[in-house]
């Protein structure tokens, strides 16, 4: 869920990212850079950075805004320094894993999750595992617990029974314990008891994010989210060294122990990452301002992960270079794509990162700034996978996350719901207003959706459809072509005039009246 500029990277850089993440499930090969540049223009950067200028301005004119605001100079070695910050070992092992999924079910008490059901949480955890290439769930165990906050999560008897079952599973290589975050001592004890590596949801989601992050901002955000893990690993390493009498020793002449040096290095790394992120964020904000000045209406497409946001944008824009994938968190970078509505009005669709219920907190914190752009859009489209058994719960998590973004009230009130994957539910029709059923995959219901989008965008942006009489000899007609969307021109030759139907913003209409006051 988050917005950022998809930078066009040199090919070598892309292949390095892919190589670093061998565990990602069969992601289709990245298209060559020029294609990617077309598919993933950054917010507002509609000329693309070296991307060949496929902007909504089909007339090939350059935007006015570009020169008006100075771009902040990036320090020369910024990119190199960022690459250095991003260099670290993957958090999960490479290669195939045979996983036992253990889901602690809290049946009662304050720890009982609201709204969710064990089967759904289990299905979601299984989907997370399946997202990683070569990983499979060989056994799923839903294990009751009254004490999820205790060090070992389960009561003594339950844990013994669980350990026996896990130890009895042939060929097991890891356990995915479906808790948000596990402390290092818990992890160590469980690994010792079960004889395989144990991961929590934070680690698994983080690894998926790491594999899917493409842009500098997304990669830096993952690196920031990774720091708590590095800190707890450090404690672990130091405890081990201490056992051998090494961890608390002073490094010769420095007056600092190994632990202190490592902590200082991590702190310095955090400061550098935050600084680099700030720099990229300021750039994004600048691009956003420029985009707003260009006055293309912006439609943010949000929704639960895997609901079909990217597929819908591909269908609405006809941009075949956009790559949807049957994978959780396929989209990690917010990208902008130009499309046109029935009246030929150009809108920018922002593809965003998907929501997940119980997304680990530090990941939310690391990525939340990229959702800033949603707050600046003119309309939000909430895509829902209505074929999903827990579609209502997914809707509730998305709405609660949207409320958390403190969006302007009119934007929140005007959310348009798109009920996607209707092809999987023959005869489906949405209940309630402001909702439309579509199949983004099969292209069903898209014309109705575009018409609805157009109405909603006109309402939200104060644009109007007007028919203006202009003199053919004067500059009005070409001015309108530049500053508004011309829908129709009816020439009245005997009078030397034309009736021009346009979609025009309030400010452009004001300018028109001032320039041509007859
Ligand atoms: N049957 C059916 N499948 C669809 C439809 N729309 C999308 N899908 C499939 O759903 C899967 C996810 O689609 P995406 O468009 O990548 O979903 P997303 O919401 O962008 O996912 P993330 O970026 O991971 O959050 C893909 O396998 C799509 O082919 C639809 O209308 N019908
Ligand atoms: Mg997507």
Automatic annotation (TrEMBL):
Coiled-coil residue windows: 259-286
Cellular compartments per GO CC: cytoplasm
PROSITE patterns in alphabetical order: G_HFLX
Start-end of Acidic residues biased regions: 68-84
Disordered: region residues: 44-86
Gene3D superfamilies: GTPase HflX, N-terminal domain (3.40.50.11060), P-loop containing nucleotide triphosphate hydrolases (3.40.50.300)
Pfam families in the cross-refs: GTP-bdg_M, GTP-bdg_N, MMR_HSR1
Sequence ranges of Gly residues compositional bias: 45-55
Molecular function terms, GO-annotated: GTP binding; metal ion binding; ribosome binding
Domain (Hflx-type G) ranges: 297-461
InterPro entries: G_HFLX_dom, GTP-bd, GTP-bd_M, GTPase_HflX, GTPase_HflX_N, GTPase_HflX_N_sf, P-loop_NTPase
Start-end of Basic and acidic residues biased regions: 56-67
Record keywords, A-Z: Coiled coil, GTP-binding, Magnesium, Metal-binding, Nucleotide-binding
Name the UniProt record assigns to this protein: Putative GTP-binding protein 6
């Amino acid at each position: 869920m988050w917005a950022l500029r998809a930078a066009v990277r040199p090919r070598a850089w892309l292949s390095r990212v892919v190589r670093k993440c061998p565990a990602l499930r069969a992601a289709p090969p990245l298209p060559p850079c020029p294609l990617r540049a077309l598919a993933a223009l950054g917010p507002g950067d509609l000329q693309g950075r070296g991307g060949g200028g496929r902007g909504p301005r089909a007339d090939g004119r350059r935007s006015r805004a570009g020169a008006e605001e100075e771009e902040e100079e990036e320090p020369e070695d910024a990119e190199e320094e960022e690459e250095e910050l991003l260099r670290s070992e993957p958090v999960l092992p490479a290669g195939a894993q045979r996983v036992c999924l253990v889901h602690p079910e809290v049946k009662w008490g304050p720890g009982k999750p609201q709204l969710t059901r064990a089967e759904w949480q289990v299905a979601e955890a299984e989907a997370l595992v399946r997202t990683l290439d070569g990983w499979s769930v060989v056994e799923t165990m839903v294990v009751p617990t009254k004490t999820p906050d205790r060090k070992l999560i389960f009561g003594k008897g339950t844990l013994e029974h669980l350990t026996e079952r896990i130890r009895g599973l042939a060929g097991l290589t890891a356990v995915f314990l479906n808790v948000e975050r596990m402390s290092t001592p818990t992890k160590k004890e469980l690994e010792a008891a079960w004889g395989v590596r144990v991961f929590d949801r934070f680690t698994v989601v983080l690894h998926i994010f790491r594999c899917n992050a493409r842009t500098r901002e997304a990669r830096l955000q993952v690196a920031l989210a990774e720091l708590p893990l590095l800190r707890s690993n450090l404690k672990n390493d130091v405890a081990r060294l201490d056992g051998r009498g090494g961890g608390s020793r002073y490094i010769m002449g420095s007056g600092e122990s190994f632990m202190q040096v490592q902590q200082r290095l991590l702190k310095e790394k955090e400061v550098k990452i935050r600084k680099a992120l700030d720099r990229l964020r300021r750039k994004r904000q600048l691009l956003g301002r420029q985009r707003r000045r260009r006055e293309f209406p912006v439609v943010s497409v949000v929704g639960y992960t895997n609901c079909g946001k990217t597929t819908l944008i591909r269908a609405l824009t006809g941009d075949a270079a956009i790559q949807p994938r049957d994978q959780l968190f396929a989209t990690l970078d917010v990208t902008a794509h130009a499309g046109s509505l029935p009246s030929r009005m150009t809108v920018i669709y922002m593809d965003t990162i998907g929501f997940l219920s119980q997304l680990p907190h530090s990941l939310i914190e690391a990525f939340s700034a990229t959702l800033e752009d949603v707050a600046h859009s003119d309309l939000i489209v909430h895509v829902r996978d209505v074929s999903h058994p827990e579609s209502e719960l997914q809707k509730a998590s998305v709405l609660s996350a949207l409320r958390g973004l403190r969006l302007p009230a009119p934007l929140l009130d005007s959310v348009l719901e798109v009920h996607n994957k209707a092809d999987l539910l023959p005869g489906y029709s949405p209940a309630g207003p402001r909702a439309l059923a579509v199949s983004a995959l099969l292209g069903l219901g898209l014309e109705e959706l575009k018409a609805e989008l157009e109405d909603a965008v006109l309402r939200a942006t104060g644009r109007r459809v007007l028919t203006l009489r202009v003199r053919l000899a004067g500059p009005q007609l070409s001015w309108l072509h530049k500053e508004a969307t011309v829908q129709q021109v009816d020439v009245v030759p005997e009078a030397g005039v034309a009736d021009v139907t346009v979609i025009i913003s309030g400010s452009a209409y004001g300018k028109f009246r001032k320039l041509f006051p007859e």
